[in-house]
Every structure is written in structure tokens, then in C-alpha cells.
Design a protein that fits this description.
With about 400 residues, this protein is mostly helical. It is about 45% helix and about 5% strand. It has a 3-stranded mixed sheet, sandwiched between helices. Strands 1-5 form a two-stranded antiparallel sheet. Helix 2 (about 25-30) packs across helix 3 (about 35-45) and helix 8 crosses helix 9 (about 230-245).
Length: about 400
């Protein structure tokens, strides 16, 4: 039990801020002007900071002092990272903390709006061995059917994913090795996806998002593995799902001309919004190419263009998340709260909210008009009774509770 200091100091917030800012206890102690032992006591909950120390602490990590007294929302489920290397431990902790801050933003905004109803295929696999290639193809097809996408190229995958109730975050992380992660929020009963914006490649970003969608659909009930081979198996299944979702067998296969050439694949790349490398893997999965044919194309691709880039990579801008951005804009348009009050309501720094919600830098000093995606709440409703999203309709909002 803590002795002295600010009442209600939440030590879990301190651990979260250390991860989010990638600071050690020693570094934070130096910035705040206290001893490392004092920070250790704050983190252990045996001591709480005095008022002056709390204000210095909040200032150096750029949050409000009151943020440290808010109980953290329940943690999201353990994300599955693309790389299983232990060298990324600090990077993973930072990304998990950023994802939890995204959840904080979404939870704070959910007091006033209804998000789109969650609309994902339900799969109850508890072991990756249960998941066959046929099951993956069926799950990808069912997802397209639920979202009424037909079997043509998806024009905007980010919009489709958010319309299905997934909260999408895309921000520069400084960690190019980790393209994305996904997790489930218990408090909102919906998933979150965080994509890295460090590589400005719309083709790769789409595939990364479809890959995370595969994890959400196929692996929700499978414990996160520690064994390398099991982790690799889940990654391969998510890759297979991404290929099946973005390049549906019924229509994509009919557009492939034999023998397959790299120039033909570049045309398919532009039409379907999928890289040549991913197309070759899909052709192998559909048995249009055998292993030898696929390897031959990969070798020719590497010799002609190099291993890490393809012609036209800059032709397609990455798709941008809209849900949190438009929800904040809606709250301001409907006069729920002044723009500059939103960061105070959430408790995070304005620039963190701007980054996580996909807002332009300096948004809270002035904004532009955008179309709404979320809609204001007219009355409290249970999650099972929420109506389907209709971005063209804005209902009267429920006034925030008075203090």
C-alpha cells in the first residue's frame, strides 16, 4: 500500500508511460529530478508522488497529471507480432502501450457515439492444427460476403475493415521491422489493428492489414505461441488468409495468363492492389504455379528489381484510417465539447491523440470538415441491439453526464 503522496496514483499508468515513451526508470528519474529508487517505489505501489513531483512527471512525459489517477482500462489481448525475435522486447512493449492508448481514446469517445456494429466471421479454432487451407479459403470468402464486396478488387480495405467495427490505427512507430499488430479489446468487445506507417507503400500496407484481419478471424481463441514453429504456422495461415481475401480464387485465377511473366504480374498488381511477390505466393497456393515455377519467378523478380522493391510501389498511397478521426470531428461539429477540451477529456497529449486517431498535426488548433463514420448516440443501447452503421445519418446525440 502506498504511503503519502497523491491519493489514487495508478502505478499501472507509470509502467504504461515508460513503455510508450521507451524510457528506463533511471532515465525517467533523471528527467523528473528524483532518485531511481523513488521511481521504483512509485512503480511498485509502495509510495506515491507528491503533488510537485507528479506535475513534473506529467510534464516530462507529456500527459496531464490527472491521467496518472485514472485507472487503466483492461488490457487488450496479447498481440501476435510478425517477428518472434526477443530483440524486439522494448519495441513490442511500446507498440502494446500505443495500442492501449488507442483503446483509451476509443473508450472515451464511446461515451458519446456508437461505433459500427462488429461484423466478422466467427471461428472457434483453439489449435492451429484445426485450420486447413480449405477453412482459410472459406473464412476469407465469408468475410467478403458479410461485407458485400463481391469478388472484385477491394477499393479501400481500410474503409471496409472500419465499417465492420474494427478500430484501425496507422502511425509512424520508428520500428520498421514490425509492420503491424492486432488485439481484442475486452471493454469494447471489438478488435484493434495498429499498422506501421514507416514504409509509405500502399501495396504492402493493404497486405499487412489483410494479414492482421486473418489473425482476428482465425486465431482469436488460440493462445499466443512461444514456440518458433507454432508462431510460424500462425503467420503462414494469416498470410494465406490475406491472399485469399485480396485475390479471390473465382475471379483472380481467370485473369492469369500462362506462361506467367513479371510484366503480366505488374498489370495484375495495379488492378488488384497487391504486390507481385504476394501474387506469386497466391498463384502457388492456388496451384497455378508449382514450387519450382514460383521460385523461378522470385529469382527473376530479385534479379530484375532487387529483393525489397518493385516497379510502381509509389503509385498507390496507403489507405488511411477514418473512424477515430471522424468521430472526433463529429463531437466538435455537434457541439458536444470544444475542440481543445477533447485532449483534456482523454488525458493524453494532443500530438499523441492526433497520431493515434489519424488526425493532421496541429488538428486541435484548427480543423477541416470531414464526413462522419461513427454516429451520435440517441439513447443507451446494449451491444447486441446496436443498429448497423449508416454513415449518411447523424442522430441527435446523448448529452454528456453533468458533473
Amino acid at each position: 500500500m502506498s504511503r503519502g503522496g497523491i491519493q489514487g496514483f495508478q502505478r499501472g499508468r507509470l509502467s504504461q508511460i515508460l513503455a510508450a515513451r521507451r524510457l528506463s526508470q533511471v532515465q525517467l528519474a533523471s528527467l523528473v529530478g528524483v532518485s531511481p529508487a523513488t521511481v521504483s517505489k512509485w512503480r511498485a505501489g509502495t509510495q506515491a508522488p507528491e503533488r510537485d513531483a507528479l506535475e513534473r512527471l506529467a510534464s516530462v512525459v507529456n500527459v496531464t497529471p490527472e491521467w496518472f489517477t485514472r485507472p487503466p482500462t483492461p488490457k487488450v489481448s496479447l498481440p501476435l507480432f510478425r517477428s518472434n525475435a526477443s530483440a524486439h522486447v522494448a519495441a513490442r512493449a511500446m507498440l502494446e502501450a500505443r495500442l492501449e492508448w488507442g483503446q483509451d481514446i476509443a473508450v472515451a469517445l464511446s461515451e458519446f457515439v456508437d461505433y459500427p456494429v462488429l461484423n466478422l466471421p466467427s471461428r472457434l479454432f483453439s489449435d492451429p492444427e484445426e485450420i486447413t487451407s480449405e477453412e482459410i479459403e472459406l473464412a476469407a470468402s465469408e468475410c467478403r460476403d458479410l461485407w458485400r464486396l463481391g469478388r472484385s478488387a477491394v477499393q479501400d480495405l481500410a474503409l471496409a475493415v472500419e465499417g465492420a467495427g474494427v478500430v484501425l490505427i496507422r502511425e509512424e512507430t520508428g520500428i520498421a521491422q514490425i509492420e503491424g499488430l492486432s488485439a481484442w479489446s475486452e471493454v469494447l468487445d471489438r478488435p484493434f489493428v495498429l499498422l506501421s506507417a514507416d514504409k509509405d507503400n500502399g501495396y504492402r500496407s493493404r497486405f499487412d492489414l489483410a494479414h492482421e484481419l486473418g489473425h482476428l478471424v482465425l486465431h482469436r481463441h488460440i493462445p499466443r505461441p512461444t514456440e518458433r514453429d507454432r508462431h510460424k504456422q500462425l503467420e503462414q495461415q494469416a498470410h494465406r488468409f490475406a491472399g485469399a481475401f485480396l485475390l479471390p480464387a473465382e475471379t483472380f485465377a481467370t485473369e492469369v495468363r500462362m506462361p506467367v511473366t513479371l510484366d503480366d504480374l505488374l498489370l495484375l498488381k495495379r488492378r488488384w492492389g497487391v504486390s507481385v511477390g504476394a501474387i506469386v505466393m497466391r498463384l502457388r497456393a492456388l496451384k497455378i504455379l508449382d514450387e519450382e515455377g514460383a521460385q523461378s519467378l522470385f529469382k527473376r523478380r530479385s534479379a530484375r528489381w532487387g529483393a525489397k522493391s518493385e516497379p510502381g510501389d509509389g503509385d498507390r498511397s496507403p489507405e488511411r484510417p477514418r473512424l477515430l478521426h471522424r468521430t472526433i470531428d463529429l463531437l466538435v461539429d455537434e457541439n458536444v465539447m470544444p475542440m481543445d477540451a477533447i485532449p483534456r477529456h482523454i488525458g493524453l497529449a494532443a500530438h499523441d491523440i492526433e497520431s493515434l486517431a489519424g488526425l493532421p498535426e496541429g488538428y486541435f488548433q484548427g480543423k477541416g470538415k470531414v464526413v462522419q463514420l461513427a454516429r451520435m448516440r440517441s439513447a443507451p443501447v446494449s451491444s447486441g441491439d446496436r443498429p448497423a452503421m449508416d454513415s449518411s445519418t447523424v442522430l441527435p446525440f446523448r448529452s454528456p453526464p453533468k458533473a
